[in-house]
Amino acid sequence: MNLLRTLIIPPISLLLLLALSYLISLRWRRAGKSVRVFAITALFVLSTNAGAYLFLAPLENLEPVLDLKKTPLAQSAQAVVILSAGRFENSPEYAGADVPDYVALARLRYGAKLARETHLPVLVTGGVVHPEREEASLALGMANALEQEFGVPVKWREERAANTRENANFSAKILREAGVSHVLLVTDAMHMRRSRFAFERAGIKVTSAPTVFFSHVTLGVYSFLPSPEGLRRSQYAIYEWLGLVWYQLRDN
Q1: In the chain, which end has fewer C-beta atoms inside a 10 angstrom radius, N or C?
Q2: Degrees (nearest 5) of the Cα angle 194, 198, 201?
């Protein structure tokens, strides 16, 4: 599945299409040239923040910013659930410990804010990145950061999940055993709809608490120039759109 995902999501898919265009040109020169122009143009557009905006803005708009005072349903939430992201391994400034990466930290920061404002207990979810190694779970690193750096206690750690669906299923079991049926769910705005879908399928009522909104950034001149960040945002958005489609097909 990881290999298939890598092949489908740009830039690999467009580079393969570019290579294919030369093979097509051996027999159909005009068709090959058209495919080549499309691949190069698409790669250019997707490598800009403006191009990425076309994919990420509709995705982020599916889940609005949470306003606790204006969202009556939020008042009945019983816990804050924060989803894992990546991590930096063997961080020398932390004595070689594995620590949450900048994406995970953004989620933790907002989750800590909500926990302080609502006084709700916190669950963090994320398993082991490399099962073949003896290493700590993502949830443990998240819990350490919340408790030691944000001063927010963590009541539950879900340490088996390897993907969003497992985040939901394994967390739901812990939550149900604790009598929790409604949560404030924290993750990136682009990841929010798919995460909410997964948790609701697992039987947990969700009030979305998205963070990291790229679509609210003002576009400038440099937004129309290719950059690694532009391509990263496009990859993220396309991955989430494909994930939503896959969830719908799999569950229907």
Answers
A1: C
A2: 135
